[in-house]
Amino acid sequence: MSANVMIELIGVRKSFGNTEVLKDINLSVARGSVVALIGPSGSGKSTLLRSINLLTVPNHGFIRVGAQALDFFGEHKLPGDRELAAFRAKTGMVFQNFNLFPHMNVEENVMEGPVTVLRMPKTAARTLALGLLEKVGLADKAKAHPENLSGGQKQRVAIARALAMKPEVMLFDEATSALDPELVGEVLSVIRALAADGMTMLLVTHEMAFARDVADKVVFMRDGRVVEEGPARQVIESPTQPATQAFLSHFHNGLGPL
Ligand code: ADP
Ligand code: MG
């Protein structure tokens, strides 16, 4: 195991009923790097991300995040709650639909995890929350309620909330797909800043220009398999596999100057 690899998957398989949606996935994300996961709808991208956080439990394979590893080879059962919680705590996840707590204001949303899970005193959690809100450009919205925020602002709160748990890696599942086009940029800017800070990130995205410009590596999935992976610019601009070429041909109008 290489300490330089922060996320490692070996031979990961997942079936729902008789349908195998992850077929022998091998994937690694280097420490401090950004990997973009692309591919058509239904190819298993969300299931892969959810497996890393054990929101979905694989049927087979090995998963490591930082120093925590779990293996699902042969006979295995789900780890106990404590081990599961420790494993999940390493990973911050941001979803398409924000999932903010509607009855809490912005600051309380960000404080919730540190206070209830990490047992952080409220004053310390508030200081942490305000610092993170500053970082995502929302210091002035600390007392606002989610219902009064734009989608882009809600998503930036969701990112601050995930960061409050001090994760070692961040996973983004189509974090900008639910946003109006004019709000996408503000969320991508925050992700770009996290990348510049050296956060290890795996992101599912349909923003191909962003993947090309910000990711170190792009992984293309189809039908539960990794079809092609390589340096971001190479995969996006000159993919070698026909399936990758066909997929990317749908985006070329929106890619901007190459
Ligand atoms: P993507 O994110 O690439 O669109 P998903 O990982 O969401 O793909 O889904 C991959 C396949 O797994 C799809 O065919 C989907 O219908 C199926 N699937 C995902 N989650 C479940 C589930 N909980 N139960 C049954 N099938 C599922
Ligand atoms: Mg998905």
Overview of this structure, please?
With 258 residues, the protein is α/β, with parallel strands linked by helices. It has a domain at 99-166. Helix content is 36%, strand content 26%. The chain contains nine helices and ten strands. The protein has helices at 45-52, 81-89, 106-116, 122-135, 151-163, 181-197, 208-214, 232-237, 242-248; strands spanning 5-16, 19-30, 34-38, 60-65, 68-71, 91-94, 169-173, 200-204, 217-222, 225-231. It has a six-stranded mixed sheet with strand order 6-7-8-3-9-10, with helices on both faces. The protein has a four-stranded antiparallel sheet with strand order 2-1-4-5, with helices on one face. Helix 3 (106-116) packs parallel to helix 5, helix 4 (122-135) packs across helix 5 and helix 5 runs parallel beside helix 6 (181-197). The longest helix has 17 residues, at 181-197. The two termini are 37 Å apart. 42% of the residues are buried. The mean pLDDT is 93. Magnesium ion binds at residues 45-46, 173.
Radius of gyration using CA atoms only: 18 Å
Order of helices and strands: EEEHEEHEHHHEHEHEEHH
General form:
globular
**Averaged pLDDT:** 93
Hetero compounds: adenosine-5'-diphosphate, magnesium ion
Going by helix content, strand content and strand pairing, the class is alpha/beta
Number of helices: 9
Question: Approximately how much beta-strand content do the residues carry?
Answer: 25-35%
Biggest sheet features:
6 strands, mixed
Q: Give the termini distance in whole angstroms.
A: 37 Å
Low-confidence sequence ranges: none
Total beta-strand segments: 10
Strand order of the largest sheet: 6-7-8-3-9-10
Helix content: 25-40%
